[in-house]
Amino acid sequence: MPNKSFESRRTVILVIVLSIGIIFTLRLLFVQVLNSKWSDESLKISETKRIVEPERGLIFDRKGKLLAANKTIYELKLTPSKINDFDTTALCQLINIEKDSLIRKINRLKRYWRLKQILVKTVPEKNIAKLTSLMFKFDGFELVEKSIRNYPESTAGHLLGYVREVDGDIIKKKPYYRGGDRIGISGLEKYYEDELRGRRGNNQFLRDAYGNLKQLTASDTAKSGNNLWSSIDAELQKYGERLMQNKLGSVIAIEPATGEILAMVSSPNFDPNLLTGDTMSRNWRRLFLNDSLKPLFNRGFSSRNSPGSVFKMVQGLTAWELGVIDEDTKIYCDKNLVGCHGHSTVQGLADAIKVSCNPYFYETFKRISTSQEGENNFEKSRKGIKLWNEYVKSFGLGVNLELDFPNYSIGNIPSIATYDKIYPNKKWNYRTCNSLAIGQGEMLVTLYQIANLSCIIANRGHYYYPHLIRKVEGGEIDPKYKEKHYTKVSKDKFNLIVDAMQQVVEGSGGTASGARIEGVEICGKTGTVENSRGKDHSVFIAFAPKDNPKIAIAVYIENAGYGGTWAAPVASLMTEKYLTDTIKSSWKEERILNANLIPKKK
Amino acid sequence: MKNVLKNIDIQLLGIYFILVILGILSIYSTTFDENYSSIFSLNKSYGKQIMWFGISMGIGVFILLLDIEFIKKYSEVFYGFTTLLLILVLLIGTERNGAKAWFGFGSVGIQPAEFAKISVSLMVAKFIANTNTSLLRLQSRIWLGAIVFIPIFLILQQPDLGTVLVFLGFILVLYREGIIGNVLLYGLLILVVSVLALILKDTYNNIFGLVIHAHYILGFTLILIAILVTMGVNVTTYKRYRKAKYIRIVLITLVAILMVPTMKYVFEKIPENHYQRVRIEIILGLKEDARGVGYNSHQALSAVGSGKFLGKGFKNATLANDTYSQVPEQSTDFIFCTVAEEWGFLGGFILFSLYMLLIIKIIAIAERQRSTFGRVFCYSISSIFFIHFAINIGMVLGLAPIIGIPLPFFSYGGSSLLSFSIMMFLVLKLDSDRLTTFR
Q1: What residues does A267 pair with on adjacent strands?
Q2: Which helix (H) or strand (E) holds A219?
Q3: Could you tell me if A442 and A421 are in contact, meaning their C-beta atoms sit under 8 angstroms apart?
Q4: Of B178 and A255, more confident
């Protein structure tokens, strides 16, 4: 048989078969064991991560009312490539939009054919249920839940601040954030961002070839942000906002025993809900750029002004502590020195405060300098100012009071350097700067410092750093807020001042009889700050009750006139509201509510 | 029948059963659905496959009862019948995946090309057996060529490239019978080596921390094959002929090894963006195109790679099954992905070994046949299994282009399981009758 001679060819065939077997085995070994490329590739195509956004922490007021909350809204997203014929009219009705504008919007999105994009930022709430049940009719459209910030009390906009989606700059600076994340931009939302934001979760899924999630393989749960309990009293805050409507200025109330800020009204103010949701940027532009009264500006924390006569207590206490006067020192009301009001003869320090005698405090200021050792008035004044500056600063004026707030001004108490700068030849003495004695001149302080001064007198000589948050979920507030700070003036001298301040309100001839509250012992001091550009600023500080005070308050109304006329009744109404929860003299309230003290534009 | 049972090759039958059962388990694994409680259901592909297995067994028993002379006698009729079906399918067949290759009966489809493989094998075997002495005549060769090329031509019209490639397996048969010479074989060697040299030209493999260019591994493999051949020569050749063969083996191996760097050098002489070069690169898979043309291969290799050494376990695939559908044609052409993903390198290696065993076993059976008809037929069947195995696994492993062709006994599909089973039982029947056949 001829084919027998080809018998050896079976070896070749066997070799071919075995070679394929060997090649395949080696290849399989590379693909599966020796080389990780393909197993890495398999993870790339089969695994996918989904971020779980944490719920942002809530902010409560001191009585448990929700100041800042979260609200679910629905975005309508569209993937143009997946779109099919659909009932345009029905969709237009559901999302409350004109047919033309819907078609225009869809056409705009078609530029990115395969990308899922936002078509409508907020679908009207009342249509959600209906739309959800009809979504199957609209191929390519998708309803996506989104959480936005919401401020149920519509109050304290300046304090709460607002949040915004991060932009490229923020992501570059803070690597935690990713596109679509929100971040606090101002106020408590900014200062307590790390507490409020929580920690995002990460879910790992196996997916199929079409991108559908099939199985959860690993989960790193999201942690909601910590809730904050604020010291704000929402009722008081809202009442203050009402009282201050149509006025420029601010009101700050603090609980003296703790330094907790009860209310901070800066007028004009704004509803924080304006800066949430899809109308945010429009509203922001309106508030920030197009409003000459600058409603976004926080006057209470950032505006720097002269304190005016409310400073006289500091001046008097400093002079007394330095021994240049005592409680009975009488000083002639020399109107050549500085203008004064027609008042009876001053019988001592308490009386000087009650009638707010300007020359009295000029004299105390002079005495601080002249009592120093030195060759001439210039040198004595230098030493005097230095000492005076130290004492004044111990009252928390012109120093950083460490607010738990992202931005606030510190102000400035003039020092040697201040005047050396103005007079490089150093030829200046106490006469150059004696208007400081009555809280005028180069002295610049902020209202929270003035309110704090009120606390100091209420506490008879000590204060706590004012703060807005009294409790953080799962943590403690900064211990610095529990630390007592003392002034350089001994505590026993304060009772005289407290009595004097009571006389200011309740004594005959006091400057603030408009601040009286029936049944409450209230202590106060008026201030009228000279203003070169217009009407005087009306200032008032107060605390009540006299013994064991529960509230200390400072009011500053720009261009309103005498402190006793406007600021005192506002402070009084706030105090009465906080202490008794009612207002007995409705005519006083009426008068304030109806007053429009915003200067007319020329 | 008693005779048949006594003489049947139990080993081959055993391999057949193991492969079919493993295949059904793999199909079960790919379609497994936790929410679907019934184990056996004709609605599910594994249920249908079990049914086809039953039908195959019935036909197998029927074949074992037949007289082999009957089959041999009617080879021309079978051939004529399947050829007619191949013509008919072009006229009234249904089109699936771009090929008019099916007769559809509801959800069941019959692919005549599957059965043409059998009838051509029978026809070739009978023709060679009957024209034994005159095979070297041109006329006989033309006849033989016609027998093979008429079905190839018809199948090309469908077009079903995969099945056409399977018919090229007859080259091995003709080579074994001395009808075609070594030249073709050398040509094949050159083609394989050049393709491998190009595919691997920029590949580095990290073997236990040692980074080695893949060309060295290719060279090493060639030497390994040469050693295998030498060992084969030692067994089969008389001493006095060995020296000449050794020289030839050394020369061929040298040429093959030298070709590897030469191919790389020549190829890189072609300008980078020349369209011919780009075309070759895409065919060879050197240019990745994971989302487009290369999608299937990319997904399949990812599934295979994710299996690592021991695999993820039965029913635990996370790419190659119907739940994740990361691999297309999961239970049919790419069924090996499931095996590789769930059983890892170990399972894949065992499966390769089973197929090697199957192919070599049938070659051994072919060689022990007393009749030319039996030998040629068994060789044909072995070649068909081999080509199926080589192309299917080569495709999954990214060594061959993506050509739809089932893995024998494993892939889901009634026609293919039935036709492979018929081949298997014909081999078993022929073999069990060998002692009674004198020629």
Answers
A1: A249
A2: strand A213-220
A3: no
A4: A255
Helix segments in A394-446, DSSP class H: 416-422
Using an 8 Å CB-CB cutoff, list chain A residues near B298: 41
Which of B306, B338, B343, B363 is the best residue to mutate to test the A interface, defined by the most A CB atoms within 10 Å of its own CB?
B306
- Give the CATH architecture of domain A234-594: 3-Layer(aba) Sandwich (3.40)
Place of tokens 């201040």: A418
DSSP state for residue A160 in the 8-state scheme: H
Tell me, what's the pLDDT at A511? Answer: 79
Which tens digits make up the pLDDT trace of B219-242?
Answer: 888 888 888 888 877 877 778 888
Instruction: List, in order, residues 6 or more apart from B92 with CB less than 8 Å away.
Output: B103
Point out which residues pair with A66 in neighbouring strands. Answer: A60
**What's the CA gap between B81 and A282, in Å, rounded?**
81
Q: Is the pLDDT of residue B28 over 50?
A: yes
Tally Cβ neighbours within 10 Å of residue A344.
Answer: 10
d(CA B222, CA B184): 18
H helix count then E strand count, chain B: 17, 5
Per DSSP, what are the bridge partners of residue A479?
A: none
What count of other Cβ atoms lies within 10 Å of the Cβ of residue A523? 27
Question: Residue B339 in contact with residue B411, Cβ under 8 Å?
Answer: no
Give contacts of A11 with chain B, Cβ < 8 Å: 229, 232-233, 235-236
DSSP A375: S
Task: State which residue of chain B sits closest to A212, comparing Cα positions.
Answer: B324
- As a whole number, the mean pLDDT across chain A is 86
C-alpha distances (whole Å) from B127 to each of A506, B136, B141, B165, B425 are 133, 13, 10, 22, 21
Q: Of chain A residues 208-267, which have a CB less than 8 A from chain B?
A: 208-210, 214-215
User: If you measure CA to CA, which chain B residue comes closest to A22?
Assistant: B221
In chain A, where are the structural domains located? 234-594
Question: Please, is B70 exposed, middle or buried when counting C-beta atoms within 10 Å of its C-beta (0-12, 13-18, 19+)?
Answer: exposed
CB B392 within 8 A of CB B404: no
Output the furthest CA–CA distance in chain A (Å, rounded): 151
Q: Nearest residue on chain A to B309, judged by CA atoms? A: A33
In whole angstroms, what is the distance from residue B358 CA to residue B386 CA?
9
- Chain B residue at shortest CA distance from A18: B356
Quick one: pLDDT at residue A5?
64
Looking at the complex, does the CB of residue A46 fall below 8 Å from at least one CB of chain B?
yes
Q: What number of CA atoms fall less than 13 Å from residue B396's CA on the CB side?
A: 33
Q: Write the CA distances from B66 to A11, A111, A527, integer angstroms.
A: 33, 70, 123
Rounded to 5°, angle at Cα A565 from A563 and A571: 70
| B236 neighbourhood in chain A, CB within 8 Å | 7-8, 10-11
Alpha carbon B377 to chain centroid distance?
16
Return the SS3 of A67.
strand
Q: Give the separation between CA B304 and CA B352, rounded to whole angstroms.
A: 14
- Distance separating alpha carbons of residues A84 and A102, to the nearest angstrom: 15
Q: Which of B194, B332, B397 has the alpha carbon at shortest distance from A25?
A: B397
Instruction: Measure the CA–CA gap between A475 and B59, rounded to whole angstroms.
Output: 79
CB burial string B129-160: b at 16+ within 10 A, e below: bebeeebeeeebbeebeebbebbbebbeebeb
Name the average pLDDT for chain B.
84
ipTM of this predicted structure: 0.86
**What is the 3-class SS of A476-513, one letter each residue?**
CCCHHHHCCEECCCCHHHHHHHHHHHHHHHHCCCCCCH
Yes or no, beta carbons of A2 and B367 under 8 Å apart: no
Other C-beta atoms closer than 10 Å to the C-beta of A582 total 8
